[in-house]
Amino acid sequence: MTTIFDDPAQFAATALSGFAALYARYVRPVRGGVLRSTSGPEGKVSIVVGGGSGHYPAFAGYVGPGLADAAVAGDVFASPSTAAIARICRQADNGGGILLGFGNYAGDVLNFGVAAERLRAEGIDVRIVPVTDDVASASVETSAKRRGIAGDLVVFKIAGAAAEAGRSLDEVERIARHANARTVSFGVAFGGCTLPGATHPLFTVASGQMALGLGIHGEPGIRDESIVSASELARLMTDRLLSERPAGVHRVGVVLNGLGATKYEELFVLWTAIAKRLADAELDVIAPEAGEFVTSLDMQGCSLSLIWLDDELETFWTAPCDSPVLRRGAAIATSPGRDIETDADGPLSFPTASPDGKRGGICIKRLLEAVTQMLRDAEDELGRLDARAGDGDHGQGMSRGASAALDAATVATAAGAGSASVLAAAGDAWADRAGGTSGAIWGLLLRAWSTALSDHDPIYDKAVVAGARLALDSVCRLGGAKIGDKTLVDAFVPFVEGLETAANAGKPLPIAWAEAASAAKVAAEATKNLAPRLGRARPLAEKSIGHPDAGAVSLAMIAGCAGTVLVHAEEHA
Amino acid sequence: MTTIFDDPAQFAATALSGFAALYARYVRPVRGGVLRSTSGPEGKVSIVVGGGSGHYPAFAGYVGPGLADAAVAGDVFASPSTAAIARICRQADNGGGILLGFGNYAGDVLNFGVAAERLRAEGIDVRIVPVTDDVASASVETSAKRRGIAGDLVVFKIAGAAAEAGRSLDEVERIARHANARTVSFGVAFGGCTLPGATHPLFTVASGQMALGLGIHGEPGIRDESIVSASELARLMTDRLLSERPAGVHRVGVVLNGLGATKYEELFVLWTAIAKRLADAELDVIAPEAGEFVTSLDMQGCSLSLIWLDDELETFWTAPCDSPVLRRGAAIATSPGRDIETDADGPLSFPTASPDGKRGGICIKRLLEAVTQMLRDAEDELGRLDARAGDGDHGQGMSRGASAALDAATVATAAGAGSASVLAAAGDAWADRAGGTSGAIWGLLLRAWSTALSDHDPIYDKAVVAGARLALDSVCRLGGAKIGDKTLVDAFVPFVEGLETAANAGKPLPIAWAEAASAAKVAAEATKNLAPRLGRARPLAEKSIGHPDAGAVSLAMIAGCAGTVLVHAEEHA
Questions:
Q1: Average pLDDT score over chain A
Q2: Quick one: pLDDT band at residue B357, thresholds 50, 70, 90?
Q3: How far does A51 lie from chain B, in Å, by closest CA?
Q4: N or C: which end of chain B has fewer CB within 10 A?
């Protein structure tokens, strides 16, 4: 809903004045609208556009060289007055006549039409082009009755480019009408919007439903359906528009428009599916745009506009323009990008290892096999523990990371890598596949540990213990956590200290490791029992403040699992 | 909520590929991110930015000349992997070293930090600059712990400009750190967001509340408060940031950022209040931006970022750049705008009128007095009638329009205007002040009627009757409604026909008018009793389809009122 306002009655006028203050490089405010703050050539046809407010960037955001010369803004969802249109046209007149562009709604048709008559009576040549792109609003046979939606931008852009190119008013009108005749749009809505100060939505869409063809002020659509996948939505929108494809058309300009609360990344996802369907239809896509071009406050939904291009329309569609919302043409001179040499993660070759080093690598791989199996088994348990404090994905992430580490270790050992290289490769793979902070921590931990090992020597107990300390230091330094923060550091510190103490006391590694793992387990259990410090229902927030972190538990589990493998290996040795 | 997706697990990657396909003029896709599609000069420092997805235009939308050379994108709200960062840095390297920019979050600090270490080991000079602008996330004494929000854009923009200007890596790092140290942001949230595929919001804000300082992933804020007015919100945000204003600063760069569902016009309204407060604080605002720069899916809320400019920072803040989301510098050469000659509604002088004409003008003014009073009295009744089908503002609009018409007629008669000029001025004023479609219709109706009158002759009965027909034709032609559409045409047609029939039968005007007004009233009553054709709860939609229109009723009331005045005038004559 619309939340930020002072006096709802002044919302549109205040928004316009704020816009003009922000974008003074493009516009200057006049009563009821904005004018370009720069001049076009004397005698250039002026493009004046407008309609109700609440649709930004329609229409003030279209003002600038190569696009519109002025925009007239009515109240929210209401046509501007005849007087405002006429007044701003007089101000925008360059002596070349005026083209008035607006969406085909009763109030706009009236006010722009009457303003045009007034201005003609004053001796200014004015033409009107109501945009009629919304295929859902009337049949193809009665296309002059169709409403104007995001096709507004397409038609105005092309008219603006024709005017910028010095075409006469007759020509600009012809080209704009031609662009309008070749522009079709189809929209869906997932949710309505609320006017400033209103307590109830102006219109709604039932939860889980999408309204096909619902207008940007809630005008009736074709029908409601259950919300579908992006691919299915792309099919639905594209097929409807392709059914009006004229013969012989092989190029389209595209605007994929979000209505307000449907966000960019959703549009980009949708675009991948739309692009595929357009390619399947053997249409070349020229200068597509996806973003917010005609909104309806915070309405949820989107529309797809296609313009069937010919050479003339393509020239104007791709011509430079410079407005707050749409810019074409380079502002900075550049040269084409260099060839990218590689899309790989760096060298996959490993330093030559000694037989001892290779044996060490295989030992690490076996450890990872056991840890991976254990983490797969513990995935649900860790997930449940994490869900108490976070988003519940810790079990999945750990399992995914360990599997990736095992895969990398398998590749590395098969390539004859030594223990240091195998562990480093395993750490990198863990970080890259597990994702999130814990994945990065584990990658860091293993990689730092690997620097104490060698590809040539056997895995000496001393190196393992030294590596543990390096791993801990690295995690603390780059991760920024200290003991008591309820992260895996809480379990890792007693583990490393226990390992060092036992090793310094001369105990063999399997014994020292088992003792250290026990200490880690005790510490991890302690974090489990910490009471939440905050009662607010903000999972991510709580995670960073006082809830137990599943990371300490999983570290202790891994330490325990690895300890069992070491003891087992010792017994078999 | 996030509605458009296929596989939620692939949402971020698919969105990135869609983005890259749309913006090929700026970027080319690589695994895990995007690279500039154009080359900077050999040896230029590369700016590589990144973080989790779900924040578009952060970070891929920042890529282009004068800004970033590459962006690395993690999963939704998750840091990109160390390997992806390192890989894309290798590809983005121009031989001048790399500056890594990212928001100060644990996962990002880790992954970017470790990637930097890996790259340094490979011989690439890499610096990291975590952005720490969010004043709500830590105290000024521990500002290095602050999170990064929309200040990301500010810091990256300045770093990008310094790199574009050929500065060395040492210099770019120094400037970026300086920019970060001088950038502060404060945000409020009105509502949370829902991850793709999730059935529940990731976090929420209680209805009617705003969460001060809530993080863009739901990290804890300072406190919740009731939602306030735009002016109060501006005060709250601005004061918090001004409390950290360094001594001697007189210029600020500004980013007013919407989080997703808080829309442009709300930001523009807020900006007017913020600009006033900054001016009161004697701060010059340099190149402000308001829009969506760091979103959080469809989270509702906004943040204000200020950078305390010095000469060096201002140079880089205002330097040209060209990315999908931010462009500075002209793409088209322009000259300053012409002086605007007038901001008035056209000439307020009237043609010289004869005494007969002036008497006619005064007669029209008296009619308008009666009609205005009647409409004021009927305002509520017409409002209630309109609310059955529309937005309930018909009574207000008619009353406002008639008052404006009366004012204009008063001015015109005082200036000695004749009947044609008085009625034309009244019509224009009605249209301009009443707003909406009915205001435009009434303006048109009166203006068309005026063309049958004269400023020189008395108001002949014949002229009044001819004017009625002109008015009807004009309304039908420009308004596009025909009888049966349940608009005022339904009452106006029987009125005009009744008037013509009675006049042709030789009846004097008051009699003819009264008969015509009766016919209009009967027709208007009939429209009242029409049952709604549609049952869907979409007020605006219903209005345009089948509900009775209050316009027919108000026309009949006006006709009746005017008839009474005419009869009364006749009796007094």
A1: 90
A2: very high
A3: 11
A4: C
Is-contact A330 B331, C-beta < 8 A?
A: yes
Please name the residues in contact with A556: beta carbons below 8 A apart, sequence gap of 6 or more: A491, A495, A517, A520, A521, A523, A524, A525
Please provide the CATH number assigned to the domain covering A8-196+203-326: 3.40.50.10440
A200-229, pLDDT tens digit by residue? 888 899 999 999 999 998 888 999 999 999
Residue listed under structure tokens 């470790």: B114
Cβ of A39 and B336 within 8 Å?
yes
- Name A126's bridge partners: A98
Decide: B295 and B259 in contact? Cβ < 8 Å. Answer: yes
Residue A356 three-state SS: helix
H or E segment to which residue B284 belongs: strand B284-291
Through-space distance between the first and last CA atoms of chain A, rounded to whole angstroms: 70
Contact B330 A321 (CB under 8 A): no
Residue-wise DSSP of A276-296? HHHHHTT-EEEEEEEE-SS-B
pLDDT tens string B176-196: 999 999 999 999 999 999 999
The answer for residues whose C-beta is within 8 angstroms of residue B234's C-beta and 6 or more apart is B270, B273, B274, B276, B277
- Which fold would CATH assign to domain B8-192+226-324? Rossmann fold (3.40.50)
Residues of B in contact with A273 (CB under 8 A): 6
Structure tokens at B76: 């939704």
- How far is it, in rounded angstroms, from Cα A116 to Cα A98? 9
Q: Which A residues 116-155 touch B at CB under 8 Å? A: 122
State which residue of chain B sits closest to A294, comparing Cα positions.
B264
Residue among B217, B456, B547, B572 flagged as catalytic: B217
Q: Residues B189-214: what's their mean pLDDT?
A: 92
- A394 part of contact set with chain B, CB < 8 Å: no
Q: What is the C-alpha to C-alpha distance for residues A488 and A492, in angstroms, rounded to an integer?
A: 6
Torsion, Cα B373 B375 B376 B379, to 10 degrees, reads 170
Angle at A267 between CA A266 and CA A272, to 5 degrees: 100
Question: Do A273 and A230 form a contact (C-beta atoms < 8 A)?
Answer: yes
Chain A residue with minimum CA distance to B144: A480
Give me the pLDDT at residue A62, please.
98
* pLDDT level of residue A545 (50, 70, 90 thresholds): very low
Give every strand in the sheet of A70-76, ordered side by side: A27-30, A33-36, A70-76, A46-53, A98-103, A126-131
> For position B329, what pLDDT does the model report?
84
At residue A146, the 3 state secondary structure works out as: coil
In this predicted structure, the answer to whether residue B1 has a pLDDT above a threshold of 90 is no
SS3 B123: coil
Q: How far apart are CA B71 and CA B464, in angstroms?
A: 72
Rounded CA-CA distance A332/B358 in Å is 64
What pLDDT was estimated at residue A307?
98
Are B402 and B372 spatial neighbours (Cβ–Cβ below 8 Å)? yes
Distances in whole angstroms, Cα of residue A41 to Cα of each of A37, A48, A173, B337: 13, 16, 18, 10
User: Is pLDDT above 90 for A1?
Assistant: no
- The pLDDT of residue B537: 34
| Element holding B564 (H helix, E strand) | helix B550-572
Contact check, Cβ <8 Å, A537/B203: yes
Which residue shows structure tokens 């309109």?
Answer: B386
If pLDDT is split at 50, 70 and 90, which confidence band does B384 have?
Answer: confident
- Partner B, chain A 156-195, Cβ-Cβ below 8 Å: 164, 190
Task: Domain B355-572: give its CATH code.
Answer: 1.25.40.340
The verdict on A454 touching B (C-beta cutoff 8 Å) is no
Q: How do the domains of chain A map onto residue ranges?
A: 8-196+203-326, 355-572
Please tell me the distance from the alpha carbon of residue A268 to that of residue A124, in angstroms, as a whole number: 44
